[in-house]
Amino acid sequence: MSGIRKLIIPVAGLGTRFLPATKAQPKEMLPLLDKPIIQYIVEEAVRSGITDIILVTGKAKRAIEDHFDRDEELEGYLKVRGKPKAGEQIRKIAEMANFIYVRQKGPYGNGTPVLNARHLIGDEPFAVVWGDDIWHCPGKPHIAQMIEVFERYHDPVISLKTTDDEGTKRYGIVEGPEVQPEVIQINAIIEKPGPERAKTRLAALGGYVFTPDIFEALTDTPLGRDGELWLVDAIANLLKRRPIYGKIIDGEYYDTGNLLGWLKANVEFALRDPKIGPTFQQEFHHQIRHHQQRTKKFHIFSFPWPHACFGKNSALSAASSC
Questions:
Q1: Do the beta carbons of residue 7 and residue 53 sit within 8 Å?
Q2: Taking the CA atoms of the chain, what radius of gyration do you get in angstroms?
Q3: Sign, Cα dihedral of 196, 259, 137, 317
Q4: Rounded (10°) angle between helices 37-47 and 142-153
Q5: How far apart are CA 72 and CA 49, in angstroms?
Q6: Which residues contact 218 (CB under 8 A, 6 or more apart)?
Q7: Least CB-packed of 19, 116, 123, 201 within 10 Å?
């Protein structure tokens, strides 16, 4: 059993990239196939040994609380309708973990929700992931991979993934020696350096295991870009005090916080789904061919789509080359 029991998930963002869809619902509740995005994240945390899920929320996020609460009326309705398995599935959502909710207060920035949960963490290590980052890992879950590194070194751990030149413009890039296979001791984190300045192609993505001294680092960190409290700035301060490691995650990363990433995740999860995958793949090919014939502009076998958009190792890329 892991010694990391608590996970913070900031979910207070307004989701403006998905307006008007997120005008009256949280972006974390957008569907990924037949489950909301946030449920995948919680399920992965539970598989990693997490027992306490701390959701840092804001206004208009009540649907998240309702989703992870019991709905005995719905359970009873499903039972009467002869759907006991569906009712049991609904009941188990509320029993996956201990769910704790905190309202975000303080300056803007992704460091604030972590600081808001300080009183719930106490003096123990904990994990942090964002409410729109999804991982598909064939082996150990994303969080479990970080915890494994933490339990060896007892220092903070950050999720890493190899990126391309374009990724150096979107993510923080880390530098440092490899101390064991797929584990880096971080010397520096350069925020969005671009391909010319980036010395590596290792991107720091949204997953962390922290020791409690991150709270002191956050408190000591001045407001940064746009007058906001940034977690990366606090990590840079913490790096001056103690070692920090990066784990290159074995898995596929999906940023569902933007429209293309959300669509990619839905397509690839559908292709992997044992029930609908084969039928969906046929329909997917049919729609591409239909679009190709209609526009006469796209040539799926000569133009590098979807490889160029989704990566050569993705399920979508594999399906398109069948």
A1: yes
A2: 21
A3: negative
A4: 40
A5: 27
A6: 111, 114, 115, 229, 231, 234
A7: 123
Residue 175: how many other CB atoms lie within 10 Å? 16
Q: Which two tokens mark 68?
A: 């992870």
CA diameter of the chain: 63
Amino acid, single-letter form, for residue 186: I
CATH 3.90.550.10-classified regions of the chain: 6-255
- Two structure tokens written together for 74: 């719905």
Residue matched to tokens 């600081």 = 115
User: Class assignment of domain 6-255?
Assistant: alpha beta
Residue listed under structure tokens 């729609």: 287
Q: What are the CA-CA distances from residue 229 to residues 44, 110, 150, 199, 319 (Å)?
A: 28, 6, 25, 26, 42
